[in-house]
Design goal:
Layout: H1 3-12, H2 17-20, H3 25-38, H4 69-79, H5 82-95, H6 100-103, H7 105-110, H8 115-124, H9 130-159, E1 162-167, H10 178-185, E2 189-190, E3 195-196, E4 204-207, E5 214-221, H11 227-241, E6 246-253, E7 257-259, H12 267-273, H13 282-292, E8 299-304, H14 313-325, E9 329-336, H15 346-354, E10 358-362, H16 364-375
Parallel strand pairs: 5-6, 5-8, 8-9, 9-10
Antiparallel strand pairs: 1-4, 2-3, 6-7
Helix pairs in contact: 3-4, 8-9, 9-11, 9-12, 9-16, 11-12, 13-14
Domain VWFA: 213-372
Protein name: VWA domain-containing protein
InterPro entries: LolB, Uncharacterised_CoxE, VWF_A, vWFA_dom_sf
Length: 377
Amino acid sequence: MGADLERWRLILGPAAERHTGGLGPENAARDAALDWLYSRGDDLGKRDVRRGGARGDRGGGDEPSILTTIDWLDGIHRLFPKETIERLERDAVERYEIHDVLTDPDVLARIEPNPALLKAVLRTKHLMNPQVLAAARRIVEEVVRRLVEKLSVEVRTVFTGSRNRRPSRHRRARDFDLKRTLQGNLKHYRPEERRVAIERPHFHSRTSKRLEQWQLVLLVDQSGSMTSSVIHSAVTAACLYALPGLKTHLVAFDTSVVDMTSEVDDPVELLMKVQLGGGTDIAKAVDYAAGLIENPRRSIVALITDFYEGGNANRLVHTVKQLCQQGTQVLGLAALDEEANPVYDREMAGRLAAQGAHIGAMTPSHLVEFVAERLGT
């Protein structure tokens, strides 16, 4: 059986075997691993196009599975590349809700930390016993560490200073002005070598960002649909909290308001304490933020929510209007994550925009840039 036919057999499932032939030992093991997961079918028991067979055709009934979750995890880590492993683990948690991935400490010890698992841990941690929670914390710590490392680089890049158009006598590689250097040295172009001889390089001057007297209040909706935004808000707050001259607050809310600023420098501990789910009272949260503002014209309130208000909508609009009128920058984010594909109440978002709020969806790096631009004015 050729390699191409074996790949098609893996994609299409046993129904295609009469056309493709059988599988070799290694691909048979891959097929068993895929079958363990995808034979479960979707919620309606319909045909699963990923594996080319109906639920009943793939042995996905109520009989006990031959493989345990631990065996399956060990197998996929041996049989598949990293990208495929992450997809399989994500589907196990999110699509098929295989709960022992999150409730068995032995399974948690083997599984590869990734953002999908972090979200699943945060949604289910209230159900975990202390032993399982300790194992789950490893996933939280590893994914948060990666996110902090990535965003910290972007924060340093934005806040180490901005170039302006004035020339500088200080010759530093990071301030090299390529455009002016080429323009000023074109007369030294050597056509036979197709090179420009640089006799006088040019450099930018660099001015530091003014961070004094600014205040940033991150208001984060902790309803279940906002899990990704909660994660990235905690990481963003931790990275910005260390900046000198910028006073950063992090406030989580549902129908109540919890100020988590005292723990913002430890995003892992903060996320382990967040309680996802429940109702939403955005007006109460914005009222609380308004009470924190010290200098309105040096303040940013970033409201991260889906805008589905369960509290007093008119009060919310009124408070946002007051904040904008007094000079506070109000930023309404329907999503704060790497995908920035929000689902939100457009009517309410439109009402807030009409009062002067900036409404959108951002990645964490874009939020950092937004804050830096305001602080530089």
